């Protein structure tokens, strides 16, 4: 029913059914892949009103699967091309931040996985693809950093201060604490801003 194509390779259709409506396929040697096409073979159409939500993961022996939503296919949109290079980079950055610095070099998987979950089209169209989360996360981190850089460029010690009774001052250390805390929360959960 489902297939994937990596440019230059044979099409793969060896999806395994892992649950009633969930399918998995391994993509070997995935390190240098930038795009993946996922398609319906046409052998069996999806049931009416259903769509296939497509997810990407780098299996990590030391962590639960981290499924990133890419987008969907349906009978009306029987194939789609997804960019995965950015997702891989983000995953590696996470691995470096979270583990490598603490436990030394960890083996990085070379096999990626694509998961397809057959769900109602109405629920699938509400999902947000990971690529937009990635951009959002990068934007938020850059903005944090830029704000911190900008405000700390005005830092003066108390000794250097020219008295100005009408100006209000904030200790730079409080900004530093906020910056560190917010960045940590954002790394743990890119959707943290929804909870504020
Ligand atoms: C913040 O400052 C550091 C050190 O000067 C610099 O490397 C970095 O690019 C700056 N970041 C932004 C977003 O302006």
UniProtKB/TrEMBL annotation:
Residues covered by the Hikeshi-like C-terminal domain: 135-194
InterPro entries the record matches: Hikeshi-like_C (IPR048364), Hikeshi-like_N (IPR008493), OPI10 (IPR031318)
Cellular component, GO, one term: nucleus
A Pfam family hit: Hikeshi-like_N
Domain Hikeshi-like N-terminal: 5-132
Similarity-based family: Belongs to the OPI10 family.
Species, as recorded: Hermetia illucens
Alphabetized GO MF terms: Hsp70 protein binding; nuclear import signal receptor activity
One GO term of the biological process aspect: protein import into nucleus
Protein name in UniProt: Hikeshi-like domain-containing protein
Domain of life the protein comes from: Eukaryota
